[in-house]
Each structure stands twice: as structure tokens, then as C-alpha cells.
Design goal:
single chain, alpha/beta, 6 helices, about 30% helix
Length: about 250
């Protein structure tokens, strides 16, 4: 019955596992769900594609939120309404400083709130921070998998394409990467007292002085090095959720 479904995402109001992995692309949600045992599609409405399954004996939801924080935060909020208490965002990002290579993982400690939606929800001074336990679980999972990874602050920016404002507004601030949705997740989770973190696969360099157009041909997120990073990142993300579940049970 329609009253048993949440209005925007059309997911069930009850019955979801307490942990969720959220991604942008509905196709990526399906690919990650294929790694689960007993995966079943729960719903697919607009950009919101949702699966339930289990990873190493732990139930988990995998859901897509589309591109951009204003739409993504609707998924985060409705997943929380349906019972999710721990989130990991698994996405892609552009590197913002040297030493972070294509296909590497960036584990977000916090995010700059330039997301285009949370500024309308609460004052700009409110921080977007990952739960420390989520950061440590992601780092542990990456180390166990032998995956190249970095920790740092990321820039969640609403605009994807460059405009007249250059991408050097945070020169000297040591930002690790730039993406489009994470700060909305971190803020919405903090407001509800939930656990949230994020891990991002680097699919190119976005700082103006790092882009080598001659070598790369410009932005191309479909290269093999990125695809391999996504495969590794999916496992790291799921394993981090399992580690968080074990910690919660301890």
C-alpha cells in the first residue's frame, strides 16, 4: 500500500537494515549489491535505487542518490526515517592536492559545506564532520585490503562544471578532494545523532594546477584505473560497515 512507502524515494517505512552504503549512480548501486549475499531490489523510483542483502553475515542496504546534494539529502533523510542508523557514502571525487593518484581512495574526515542545500537548513558555522568511528573503520578496511588511501577534508561543491570562479578558493587549505554530496550526508546524520562517513575514489585531478590535459585528454572517469579503484572501494566500504556493526555489538 502506498501509505507504507516514503513519499520521495518510495522505500518502505520500516524493515530496512540499520546500516546503508549510499552511492550516486543507480548502476553502481546494482554493481555493489551484486557483491552481497541474497541481494534483492527493494525499490527503484527516480534516481533512488535501493537493495537489501548481507555482507559477511551483516544485513546492509545499498542505495543510490543521484547527482547533487539537494536530491541526495532526501534519500539520506528517508533512509533514516526507515531505520538506518549508520551510513557510508561511496563515491568518486577529483584530487585537490599532489600525491593522490587516480584510483586511490580518499577517506573524508570532514567536508566543506558548499553543497547548495545545507546552507538553507542551518547556519554556515555548523560543521560537516564524519563520525570518528566511521573514519577509523574505513581506514582499517583500506589497510586490510592493501588499497592506497588518504585521509583529509573534502570540498562538497554544488557546481560540477567550472564557471568564472576558479577552483583555487581554498589554496593552502590542504583539501584532499572535491565531490558533490558528502557534506549533506554528514550534516543530516549529525542532526539526528547518527553515524556517517565517506570514502571516495579519485577519478581525476580537479585543482587547476594539477590537471595535465596533454597527458589525460581532460576529465575521463571511465578509465580502467578508475574502474579498478571503484571495485576496491566497494569492498572497503562494505567491510567498514561490517566493522562498525561489530563495534556496535561489542
Amino acid at each position: 500500500m502506498t501509505q507504507d512507502l516514503l513519499p520521495v524515494t518510495r522505500i518502505p517505512r520500516v524493515g530496512l537494515p540499520p546500516r546503508a552504503l549510499v552511492v550516486g549512480d543507480p548502476a553502481r548501486a546494482a554493481a555493489v549489491a551484486a557483491l552481497l549475499d541474497g541481494a534483492e531490489e527493494v525499490s527503484y523510483h527516480r534516481e533512488y535505487r535501493v537493495f537489501n542483502g548481507s555482507w559477511r553475515g551483516r544485513p546492509v542496504t545499498v542505495a543510490s542518490h543521484g547527482v547533487g546534494a539537494p536530491g541526495a539529502i532526501l534519500l539520506f533523510q528517508e533512509l533514516a526515517d526507515a531505520g538506518v542508523r549508520t551510513f557510508v557514502r561511496f563515491g568518486t571525487a577529483g584530487a585537490m592536492k599532489p600525491g593522490i593518484g587516480d584510483g586511490d581512495l580518499v577517506i573524508a574526515e570532514a567536508a566543506v559545506r558548499d553543497d547548495g542545500v545545507t546552507q538553507q537548513l542551518l547556519p554556515p558555522e555548523y560543521p560537516a564532520v564524519s563520525a570518528p568511528e566511521a573514519v577509523l573503520a574505513l581506514q582499517r578496511a583500506a589497510r586490510q585490503a592493501g588499497v592506497a588511501h588518504h585521509r583529509g577534508i573534502v570540498w562538497t561543491r554544488a557546481a560540477f562544471q567550472p564557471g568564472l570562479i576558479p577552483l583555487n578558493a581554498y589554496d593552502g587549505a590542504g583539501l584532499a578532494a572535491i565531490e558533490m554530496e558528502l557534506s549533506a550526508l554528514l550534516v543530516s546524520a549529525s542532526l539526528r545523532g547518527l553515524v556517517a562517513g565517506g570514502v571516495l575514489v579519485v577519478d581525476g585531478a580537479n585543482a587547476d594546477d594539477l590537471v595535465d590535459h596533454e597527458a589525460t585528454g581532460g576529465y575521463n572517469p571511465h578509465r580502467d584505473v578508475v574502474a579498478r579503484g571503484v571495485e576496491r572501494g566497494a569492498v572497503v566500504s562494505l567491510e567498514a560497515l561490517r566493522l562498525l556493526a561489530e563495534e556496535a555489538d561489542a
